[in-house]
Amino acid sequence: MRHLCTVLELVYSTTPDNDRGLRDIAIENCSKSINQSFLGDFLLSNQKFEAIVRNDGTLAFDVLVRIHRAKRLVDKEKVQLKQAVHDWEKRLRRANETIEGLRREVKSANTAAREQDQLARDAEARAVLAREELQVLRAEGSIIRQHEQAGSGVRPVSQSDFFQLVWVMGKCWGFVILVYAILFVVWIIDSAIEERNAV
What is the domain partition of the chain in residue ranges? Predict the structure, then answer.
């Protein structure tokens, strides 16, 4: 710090006012020292520095101008930083909105997928029912053909034919009831999962 005071005194006593080369360098170092809390307190309490500043008005004015410029630069950086923070918060809000939109789309897609699965299961159950009905029709047709081939024309259905037909139909309807029971259980499980996801 003692060397800084000596340099200031030497530069401002040996250079003209319009020679800013050495003076700007000396003032820059002086301004940096003042802006630092520890060095600034030490420099401002230094009697030699006080005497130099009081005796040389040009030096005092240059120090004041440099400190003012530094303050304006700091204020400008603060404004820029505040604007950067504001822009970052705006981008963050937009990102959150995008994420929420994507979550809603995923939820909607999952709901649609579950509905498609339910439709597919229903279609499969209807196909099973149709196959069972086709088997019943084939059994009836087979019985009728057997009677026609016997040459006796269409005769009344015998007791064994009747029991066979009842057995086939009971088997078909039992399978239908089983399929609907399974679909009902699956529907209950899907509803429970959907309610839990909604919570």
Answer: 2-55, 117-198
What average pLDDT score do residues 5-19 get? 75
d(CA 168, CA 161): 11
pTM over the 0.85 mark: no
Q: Is the dihedral of CA 58, 63, 69, 71 positive or negative?
A: negative
Write the Ramachandran bin of 153: left for phi over 0, alpha for psi from -120 to 50, otherwise beta: left
Residue located via tokens 């700091």: 74
- Identify the residue whose tokens are 């979550």: 103
**Band (152; pLDDT cuts 50, 70, 90):** low
Expressed in percent and rounded to 5, the helix, strand and coil fractions of the chain are 90, 0, 10
| Angstrom distance (rounded) from CA 194 to CA 198 | 6
pLDDT at 81 over 60: yes
Please list, in sequence order, all residues whose beta carbon lies within 8 angstroms of the beta carbon of residue 115, skipping any fewer than 6 positions away. none
Is 72 in contact with 66 (CB distance < 8 Å)? no
